[in-house]
Amino acid sequence: MAPSYWIFCVWCLPLTLVVTAVEAQMDGCSSSSKRCGNLTFSYPFGLSDMETGRSCASLDFEVDCLNRTTPVLRGPRFAILTMSYEERSLRVVDLYELTQLRDYNSCHVPRWNTSVKLRPPFKISPANLNLVFYNCTKKAAGVARQDGTLVETRCVNKSDVFVSAGGFYDETSGYTGFEGCDSTVIPVLGSSGKANARDYEQLVSDGFLLTWDPPHLGSGSKRSKKKLLIALISAAALLFPCIYVLIWQIKWKRIWLLLRKKNSSSTERNYEAMLVTYGSLAPKRYMYSEVMKITSSRSDQLGRGGYGVVFKGRLHDGRLVAVKFLHDCKGNGDEFVNEVMSIGRTSHVNVVSLHGFCLEGSKRALIYEYMPNGSLDEYIYSENPKEILRWQRLYVIAIGVARGLEYLHHSCNTRIVHFDIKPQNILLDKDFSPKIADFGLAKLCHTKESKLSMNGARGTIGFIAPEVHSRTFGVVSTKSDVYSYGMMLLEMVGGRRNVKSIVEKSSEKYFPDWIYDHLAQDEGLQACAVTDEIEEIARKMILIGLWCIQVLPVYRPTITKVLEMFERSLDDLDMPPKQNFGELLESSAHNLDVQSASSTRHDEISRVQSKNSTTTTNSLS
After folding, report:
1. Are 242 and 250 in contact (CB under 8 A)?
2. 325: in domain
C-alpha cells in the first residue's frame, strides 16, 4: 500500500483524536507550573524534562533549564532574565552574541539582526533602543572616526569596528548613512530611554525586551470545532501533496532537533549557564585549534598525571602559560566545569590564575598562568630538599598557602573547599611564591554554610581528612582542607611522604607518629636536617601541622587561626594531643568505604574526645 494512503488516513480518519489530544495537552500545561532558577513557568510555557527533553508546551514556548538555574528559550537560545505574564513580556539575552562580543581579540560583529532569529509568537518590543554595530573598510573607517555619533570598539588587533546607540528600536536604522560599512542592529533596553554607545558591552549583557502573542489552540465552541474539523479534512483532501511535504518537513525538523540536543552535552549547557551567571567575569573560551597553536602543537611537555598532560605555551601577547589537556573526558564533564567555575571566580596572589579554557566536544583544556619553578613536591621530596628551598623560604611558602586557603574559605563571594591540598598542587612562581592549583575536586557552597553534603570520598590518600572517609568523625567542612594542609606541613619539615609508611612499608612507623616522637626528643629534629639556628621555625611548623591533623575536626583550628598561630612565638604554642590512628588510616587507605567499621572505632573516638576535653587548647583560642 502506498505511503501516501497511510498519511491520508493519519490526517483524515483519527483527526478528532488528534484535536482531543491537543486539548488535553493544553489543559495539562495550563494547570501545571515548574521553576527554573528564580522564575516559575506555566502555560503557555513549558520546561523541558531533564531526561527526555519533552515538555507539554508547543515548540515555540519550550524552555530548557540549563544547570538547573538558567532558563533558555529552546529555539533562539535566548537566556530568560525576567518575565511578566501580565504584560506578556520577557527580558532576555542572546547567549551566542554575548559570548562572541567578549572575545575581544576577534572584534566580533553580529552578522544577523536579532529580529532574524525570532519567529511568531515572539516579537521585539518597540520599547527597546537601537544598538548598531558597523564593520567598516579601512577607507570607510577613517570617515567613521569623524562622526561624533560613533564609538570605536575596544579591540586588540583591529580598529575598524564601531558602534552607535540611541532611538527606539528599528531594525532598518543601521542601513543608511555610512557607505563602506556593514551594519547589524541589536535591541537593548538602556536606562530611562537612553543608551550610551560606550557601554555597548553592558547593554548587550543587560539584554532586551520580548513580547509574545497568546496561543489560540484549545478554545471555541463545539460547533466551531466541528467546522474546523470539516475544514481540515477538506483541506487534507484538496492539498494532499502539500500535506505530504509538510509532514516530512516536520519529521526531519524533529530529527534535527533531537540530534542537536544529543550533541549539545550537559557540559555545554552548564557553560552557557555559567556565562549568564558570571557575565564579564566568565573565563575566555578558546577553540581547540587556537589551543594547539598556543602550545605549538603540544611540543613542550611540562608534566603528566591522572588528569591528563600539561604543556608549556605562549599566548598571542607573549605571556607564557601552562595548558592542561584532560584526557579522561567520559561522562558529562561536571568535574571540568567545576574547575572552570571554581578558579574562574578567584583572584588572589596565592591562587593560580585561569586565563581561559577550551570546550569542544570531548576536547577539553585549561589555560593557566605559567609557574616556572614547578610544584612544591619536586623540592621537598628530593635528596637534598633544603639546599634550594631553605627553611626560611619553606616557612614563607607555608604561610602563603595558608593565606590562599583563607581566601578560598572566607574571602570569595562563594566559599570554595579545595579537597586536594598536597605538595603536587602547590605551584611556585619565579620568586618561589606559592599558588594553589588544580580545582578539579573543589566544592562550592554558600558563605553561610558551615558544613557540606557530599556523596563519596574525594582527595588523595594520605591527605584526606577522616570525616571525608566517614561521617563518624564529624561533618565535612573547610576544616577538611585544614587537615590536608597540616599533613603537607609535616611533609615539608620531614621531606618524607606520609602515605609511604601506610602503603609501601606498613611495618614502618606512621609518619605523624614518627615526627611527633622526634619533636618530643632532645636533638630529635636533627633527623629532619634541623640545625639550632632554624629549630624554632621547624618546631613551629610541626606544632601547627600536628594541630591541623587532629582526627576530630572540632579540635582542629580554622585556617584563620592557623595564620594567627604563625604570628605567635613558639613558647605560646601548646603541644597538641597525640593521635593514635595509624592503624585506622592504614585501613582507610585500602578501603575508602569505612561506614561499616566495627564499634572499636567508636571506642577510639570516645577516648580521643575524652583526652582532648582535658587538654589545654590555648593554641586554638
Report:
1. no
2. yes
Residues in the chain: 621
Which is nearest to 538 in space by CA: 349, 394, 435? Answer: 394
pLDDT at residue 505, rounded to an integer: 43
C-alpha–C-alpha distance, residues 130 and 173, integer Å: 8
Cis peptide before 121 (omega within 30 of 0): yes
The verdict on 439 and 584 lying in the same domain is yes
Provide the pLDDT for residue 560.
Answer: 94
pLDDT tens column, 421-465? 999 999 999 999 999 998 877 777 655 555 565 555 567 888 889
Joined grid coordinates for residue 428: 611556585
**CB pairs under 8 A, 24+ apart, for 67-72?**
67/269, 67/270, 67/273, 67/274, 68/36, 68/37, 69/36, 69/37, 69/273, 69/277, 70/36, 70/37, 70/272, 70/273, 70/276, 70/277, 71/36, 71/37, 71/39, 71/41, 71/47, 72/272
CA gap 118, 527 in Å, rounded: 74
For residue 287, give the CATH number of its domain: 3.30.200.20
Cα separation, 150 vs 174, in Å, equals 12
Asked if 402 and 352 sit in the same domain, the reply is no
Q: Are residues 396 and 325 in the same domain?
A: no
How far, in Å, are 80, 210, 490 from residue 29 at the CA level? 19, 22, 61
Does 9 map to a domain? no
Helix, strand, coil percentages in the chain from 3-state DSSP, rounded to 5? 45, 20, 35
Amino acid 432: pLDDT = 92
Residues 260, 329 contacting (CB under 8 angstroms): no
CATH number at residue 501: 1.10.510.10
pLDDT, residue 166, reads 81
**Last-in-domain residue among 309, 336, 370:** 370
Number of domains in the chain: 3
Whether residues 364 and 387 share a domain: the answer is no
Shortest CA distance to 110 belongs to which of 184, 197, 188?
184
Rounded CA separation 346/359 (Å): 20
Amino acid occupying residue 394: L
Give residue-wise pLDDT tens across range 126-158. Answer: 889 988 888 888 888 888 888 878 888 877 556
pLDDT at residue 566, as a whole number = 94
Give the domain range for residue 481: 375-620
The answer to whether residues 466 and 555 belong to one domain is yes
Q: Does residue 223 sit within a domain? A: no
Give 500-529 as a DSSP string: HHHHT-TTSPPHHHHHHHHHHSTTGGGGGT
Query: Which of 187, 212, 237 is the endpoint of a domain?
Result: 212
What's the alpha-carbon Rg for the chain, to the nearest Å? 31
Structural domain contains residue 352: yes
Which parts of the chain register pLDDT below 50?
1-30, 218-224, 260-261, 263-264, 499-507, 584, 587-621
Helix/strand/coil for 445: strand
Active site residues: 420
| C-alpha cell at position 58 | 508547543
AA identity, residue 145: R
User: Do residues 535 and 482 both lie within one domain?
Assistant: yes
Instruction: Report the distance separating Cα 427 and Cα 301, nearest Å.
Output: 16
Which residues have a Cβ under 8 Å from the Cβ of 345 and sit 6 or more positions away? 278, 281, 412, 413, 414
Q: Rounded distance, CA 301 to CA 299, Å?
A: 6
- Same domain? For 362 and 380 the reply is no
Residue 206 DSSP symbol: H
595 and 465 share one domain: yes
